[in-house]
Write a structure and sequence with these properties.
alpha/beta; Rossmann fold; eight-stranded mixed beta sheet; two-stranded antiparallel sheet; 10 strands; globular
Length: 370
Amino acid sequence: MRQELRPTKHYNMMDYLNKAASRTMSSLPFNELDNLLLSCFAYLPLKGIVPEFPGPAREGITIREAAKRFFAEHPARELLRGDVFMVPVYRMFSRMAKSRRFGHAVLNNLLGIDDDELREHFGAIEIRTGDGVRYISYRGSDSSLDGWKESFSIVCGTIPSEVRAANYLNETQRRDDAPIRTGGHSKGGHLAVFAAANCEPEIANRIVRVYSNEAPGFLRGVYETEGFLRIKDRISRYIVESSVIGQVLDFMKDPVIVKSSAKGFLQHDAFTWNVDLKKSMFMLANSTDKKSRRFKKAFDEWIEDISVGDRKILINDIFYALERRKLQSFTQKKGVFLTVLYLILDFPKYHRSTRDAVFLLANRYLTGEA
């Protein structure tokens, strides 16, 4: 009799959270999956609930108590109608609050800046995980156009959020002597690495691990600085098989490549990453896929051929086109479709240097080898 093959079950970090819920940090030491959960924690809008930075030193608030107050103020129906990418983050928050592993973790020093005039979007939070170590979680890009514009601007040099990240790490940890972990998802991971490489040496010496989860890298010069060289061996860098964001300005070797249940760019969503529940670690792939490798090769060559001035013009052209057509965010209804449509329609209006740069990148990608 022919045996029917069953589809392979893919576990994600919500499954890990359910499995590890009753385990303390002493019975199951902090691991890379805990890192990913905490890196996503910075996306939560906890203003008015968690003690804010700067401010007087306070005891903080547990995740359990913060969740109780947050969900009392924000009914589930309201949250489900909001940003679709935030729904799994709210579910994560609820489950963490009910768990023995995270419920008593303490939140403190919340900082959130969303200034469209200054083009700065930044968020960070300190989490005391119960094992004597602080986890500094930096927020990734939000769904706003201004937030993404700032993120794109890393190809031009230092951005305001990078400076803010280093200052935040210095000022929140200077008053303490505890060991530090720091990390983030997407832009948040980028900020964690920058902060660790640019903080005060005394604080850098207390950093036990820096987690970069599908985060873009830096211009080549950053990798040669004294601060980066000091902490590079403590960086754990994760990208997915179909990585795009994690391949931008990526000049570090040997990332950990994580399998995902999603396809293409959607793998950037941390909640699609596959985990090994028995080993409490990610399911790993041998390499990135062909499209990801081709993109990296094309982008690395392209960025060397485009001046910083032309990069700035390109970014301004793209986001001006989207703002002019009143696209508010990438997560509004049909946001991705409208983004592509508007960019195509406005292409003839771009500066010549932008049109040339786009054609060059497209040609490098289409004719290059993986």
